Amino acid sequence: MTASDVSPDIRPMELEDLDEVLAIENAAQLTPWGSCHFRDCLKADHYQCLVAVEADRPVAFLILSHILDECHVLNIAVAPSRQRRGLARWLLSQSLQRAREGGMTVVYLEVRAGNSGAQALYQQLGFSECGRRKGYYRLGDGHEDAVLMQCQLGGWHK
């Protein structure tokens, strides 16, 4: 399956999605968020919590923070059985378009320095490295740097 074959629906995440979202998070992330993180995001106005659903079940999710004209991708994950099929690219592309239409001018994210696949995907979507955060992510008994990336969407940043 390629990105052009992806056709799930995107909708706002709901509290009823939490069990399935947590299952995706725990299966896909090295240091997964707990349910309290998701609950906090669902309660606050400046977060956008989205799920991609197929057959009425979440298969991926994305959490964005909106402050003024900036977005920050806080978390994105795809169910392992649906990975490598263009779903993350599609979900993030849809969200970038929505951010543009909503007047956002820049999107930021952090990615593990060792996650070259995700970095390549983000670069293909228009993100570029703008900094590093030393020891940002836990990794086993140590820490791993985060690569800070940004995507200019328009507005005064042009």
Quick gist of this model?
It contains four helices and seven strands. It has 158 residues and is an alpha+beta fold. A hairpin with a 2-residue loop joins strand 2 (47-54) and strand 3.
Q: If you had to describe this structure to a student in words, what would you say it looks like?
A:
It contains four helices and seven strands. The protein is α+β, with helices and mostly antiparallel strands and 158 residues long. A seven-stranded mixed β-sheet has the order 1-2-3-4-5-7-6, with helices on both faces. The N and C termini lie far apart (35 Å).
Shape: globular
For the biggest β-sheet, the strand order reads 1-2-3-4-5-7-6
Number of strands: 7
Give me the strand/helix succession: EHHEEEHEHEE
* Number of helical segments with 4 or more residues: 4
Low-confidence stretches: none
- Characterize the biggest β-sheet: 7 strands, mixed
Cα-atom radius of gyration: 15 Å
Portion in helices:
25-40%
Portion of residues in beta strands equals 35-45%
Give the N-to-C terminal Cα separation: 35 Å
Average pLDDT rating: 90
Question: What is the SS-derived class?
Answer: alpha+beta
Describe the secondary structure blueprint for this structure.
Layout: E1 9-12, H1 18-28, H2 35-43, E2 47-54, E3 57-67, E4 70-78, H3 87-101, E5 106-112, H4 116-124, E6 128-139, E7 142-152
Parallel strand pairs: 4-5
Antiparallel strand pairs: 1-2, 2-3, 3-4, 5-7, 6-7
